[in-house]
Amino acid sequence: MGLNKDGFYTLKDILKYKCIWNIIYGDRSKGKSFAVKERSLDHAWKTQKPTIGYIRRYRDDISSELVSKYFQDRGVNLVEKITKGEYDMIDYYRGYLWWAKRTEGKIKRGEPCGEAFALNLCERYKSTGHPYLKHYIVEEVLSDKGYIKDEPKVLQNLISTLARFDEDIEVYLIGNLISRVCPYFSEWNLQGVRNQKPGTIDIYKMKQEDGTEIPIAVEFAPSPEEKKSKVFFGKAEKSIQGAQWETQEYAKLPDIYDAFNEVYNICYEGSSGFSFNLKLLSHIEQGYLIVYVYPAKRITGRILSSRFSTDIFTTPQLSKDNPVEVLYHNLIVRNKICFADNLTGEDFYNSLKAENRQIL
Question: Residue 50 is part of which domain span?
Answer without folding.
Answer: 14-241
